[in-house]
Amino acid sequence: WNRRYVDHVQITVAESIGIEGRGAYYDKAGVLRDVFQNHMLQLLSLLAMEPPISFEANYVRDEKVKVLRAIRPFSLEAVNLCTVRGQYGPGLVAGETVPGYRQEKNVAPDSVTETFVAVKLWVDTWRWAGVPFYLCSGKRLPKRATEISIHFKQAPLLLFGQHVSDEMKPNLLVLKIQPDEGISLRFGAKMPGSTEHIQPVNMDFRYGTAFGAESPDAYERLLLDCMLGDSTLFARGDEVEAAWALVTHILEGWKQGPPPEFPNYKAGTWGPQAAHDFMARDGRAWRQL
User: Fold this and answer.
1) Contact criterion met (CB below 8 Å) for 104 and 23
2) Per residue in 217-271, pLDDT tens?
């Protein structure tokens, strides 16, 4: 995994639920503070960190902090170019009609709190320099899923004819965090027969299928680690401060101008159109979950 072979990385935390009666809290937080600051930056730091010299807690956390400190700072004026905000309106989720965010209990009727965010980050290390990381999270999306997808670059020399080369897609490695934990590798394979056609195929690994048991709940693992005195999976003070420094910078950038016209996406859809345009400007698209 490095800048020579990886085109870009996407980290997605999608939730189909709304705020579940937490309006009084959520309307003062939003998805940037609630999910991005902790969950998403944890996934980013674990993916992008260098191998620690051992799995002892502080060695692992040292490498994670290095990643957060290596995230390229952007000017306040550039925040709106590197981020997209959204807020859901009424819509359909799993065939049921659900209210918009502003109709939720304990939410201000003119609230400008974001329930969707997409951010492009750069990790300026020798391994990742020039590789964009796209992070996306939102509520009232079509399904619940957390995954990391590593999009590899297209091969520099395509050996087949042009008509075959047009069919080929770059290799893709997907780490599925929840709810169906596993790993999937997509690559191109020639279809049987005398004609030359390349079709994407997947190799899949599923924890539940391979081991016949579900993974323990995340909080079960953390409670056990706490009782054992293992702090590997717990955020250290300097790690928390580095994450909040980035989030605070984004929040300050948003304050420089008026918020978008909310709501700007229907419940049960994959976020605002601006998020898709955001990717299209770079010649890329969000992976369909």
Assistant:
1) yes
2) 878 988 999 999 999 989 999 999 999 999 999 999 999 888 899 999 999 999 9
Residues 14, 86: Cα–Cα separation, whole Å: 13
Query: Looking at the annotation, which residues are catalytic?
Result: 39
CA distance 59 to 51: 9
Query: Could you tell me which of 159, 48, 138, 44 has the C-alpha nearest to residue 88?
Result: 138
Mean pLDDT is lowest, of 18-32, 141-155, 160-174, 220-234, for: 160-174
Any alpha helices (H) in 110-174, and if so which ranges? 162-165
Closest by CA to 113, choosing from 260, 269, 284, is 260
pLDDT in tens, 138-147: 999 999 999 9
Q: What angle do CA 245, 249, 254 make, to 5 degrees?
A: 150
